[in-house]
Amino acid sequence: MKNLLILGAGTGGTIMANKMHKLLSREEWQITIIDNYKTHYYQPGFLFIPFGMYSREDVVKPKVNFLPPGVRVIFQEIDRIDAPGNHVILKDGVSLKYDFLIIATGARVVPEDTPGLQGPLWHKRIFDFYTIEGAMALAGFFKTWQGGELVLNIADIPIKCPVAPLEFVMFADAFFVERGLRNKVNITYVTPMSGAFTKPVASKVLGTLLEEKNIHIIPDFYLERVDNERKMLISYDEREIPFDCLVTVPVHKGDPMVGRSGLADEMDFVKTHKHTLQSDQFSNIFVIGDAGNFPTSKAGSVAHFQAGILAENLMCAIENRPLTGSSDGHSNCYIETGFGKGAVIDFNYDTEPLPGAFPFPGIGPFGLLKETRTNHYGKLMFRWIYWHILLKGKEMPIDSKMTMAGKKM
User: Fold this and answer.
1) 165 and 212: one domain?
2) Do 58 and 24 reside in the same domain of the chain?
């Protein structure tokens, strides 16, 4: 019996467990998936929690609900990967042999890496919404807050879902307008990027949206520390930004286990070929989603588009054929803009977000880089799609590779 090990039962790992369960002979292959935690979080839903639109129950389900029968599931912490020996060693000392390995360990937030971020004001005046605990604490704070300086800061990049911070400040604008408090809340978007987004066309469109909503942008701000006593963000060049409520997007890193295994870059992301999704160091190790050092967004859509290509290349490797699948870094995101409207972006390694119709040329129904109600409904519908279609590895009417059809240069 041959062994396929999948490390991580989040979005990418779960999709791959379902896809490979269909492709591999059950008489010849044992698929095992290993994860620390039993709960699956719908992370895009964390954005809605501070504004009372979703509850905790809307974004959590047991991971085993989405894994096919016959796949062995182990809930245990991983100590390290012995890549030369083709073994994964668990924290309890158990060693599991593999013929092929998929690393899907995702990205994690590390607020402790920024001095003062987890100081006395943590989850009192300083919050994140990238964890369920942070989103819930912020929801409680917003219920009684009467206004002041609301600052959203991205500590560093890359981060999961790069548009989520933009969505947050636009949601906040609508939320405080509807509560009659907008004239008492100053909203500031503080980023290490030179604009609202990493890609120029999208950055201009989204930056204009922020300006129209009276959201102040402070670019090129590299956070060094947080002064809890003075309620102040301080950059490496000693610029200071005051806050009454700070919403942070902390530094992101990969799983430290990957670093301990000698497979990672300086941020613990797996060093991976961006097109084949194969480890730079070992031909029987493949990577999906946020775990890799891919030069694209760390988003669920990327893992979804990578999954078909990874399945193709894994089968090539198993059958000792040249790898035929090639990822182009395809990513798309629904962007909530507040007041029941949203936008959509679709891009890849080489092509930035452009205006047009998505996913069907001339029909849509979604508008690229355009505010529409249909785009907002698409974002809301995605939660059902995520639970019932995407995680189970089912086909969707969107190509793994980005197409220029329907886009306008």
Assistant:
1) yes
2) yes
